[in-house]
Amino acid sequence: MKIISLGAGVQSTTLALLAHHKKIEPPDYAVFADTGWEPEAVYKHLDWLEKHLSFPVVRVSAGDLKMRLLTEPEFAPVPFFTANGGMGKRQCTYDFKIRPLQRFCKPHASKGNPVISQIGISTDEWTRMNPSKVKYIENTWPLIDLEMSRNDCMGWLKDHGYVVPPKSACLGCPYHNDGLWRDIKNNSPEEFEETCKVDDAIRQTIGYKAEQFMHRSCKPLRDVDFRTMEERGQLNFLEMDAFDNECEGMCGL
């Protein structure tokens, strides 16, 4: 069996549409691991993909990550920033993205015949390529084989009349740069406010001596100044975020 690991971002959307147009061999399924905490724009895009693709989209889930954070104070799999200068453990990608996909694939594999998982990692993110940690899944990277970068993916989408999808990442991901936080705050104020409530709730987590924060400044999210340098009256020759990283695995694709 062959699947596409569908994150519903730019790269995996391009991968799915390449398969839809038979530029690569179509999979049996596109599998979306739903954390329950994606932006509404991502879910709308996923709804469109489900109707448009010539092969089925399957949604799998390990539960609602946001609700787990709100209702279980001892639950902290997200690498939030801590007031003592560190970060929490990074377990969310495995628990909410990789593991649900593994559970879906395992019944479809047999000894010596693993499920082929096509992952939308592009040439500019080749360092995120990792072999599967289970024998019943074999990871492949068709965009690498096609020598396609993220910009190439966006160009292909536009050339074929498709809208470039929004970034696929949990609303409360600590790996957001300030540009993405600014976009959420300005264009999705209701989602930003809900995320601020979660940020307030994670301040004290059982088992952590230091307070936790979503933003690297270790300030409450609602108090962070996300204005650009120009908006703050400062010259900006090259505005770069000091922390512009993202999760390993399928997040953001």
Mind explaining what this structure looks like?
- The structure is a single chain.
- With 253 residues, the protein is of the alpha/beta class.
- The chain folds into 2 domains: 158 residues, HUPs (Rossmann fold), CATH 3.40.50.620; 46 residues, no CATH class.
- 32% of the residues lie in helices and 10% in strands.
- It contains 8 helices and 7 strands; from the N terminus they run E-H-E-H-E-H-E-H-E-E-H-H-H-H-E.
- A 5-stranded parallel β-sheet has the order 3-2-1-5-6, with helices on both faces. Strands 4-7 form a two-stranded antiparallel ribbon.
- Helix 7 crosses helix 8.
- The chain is globular and about 50 Å long.
- About 4% of the residues have low confidence.
Shape, per Cα inertia axes: globular
The whole-angstrom Rg is 19 Å
SSE string, helices as H and strands as E: EHEHEHEHEEHHHHE
CATH-defined superfamily of the largest domain: HUPs
Averaged pLDDT? 91
% residues in beta strands: 5-15%
Beginning-to-end CA distance, first to last residue: 22 Å
Helical/strand content category: alpha/beta
Per DSSP, the total helix count is: 8
Task: Tell me roughly what share of residues is in helical segments.
Answer: 25-40%
**Count of DSSP E strands?**
7
Give the low-confidence spans.
Answer: 237-246
Instruction: Write down the CATH topology of the largest domain.
Output: Rossmann fold
Name of the CATH architecture of the largest domain? 3-Layer(aba) Sandwich
Count of discrete structural domains: 2
Strand neighbour order, sheet with most strands: 3-2-1-5-6
CATH hierarchy, class of the largest domain: Alpha Beta
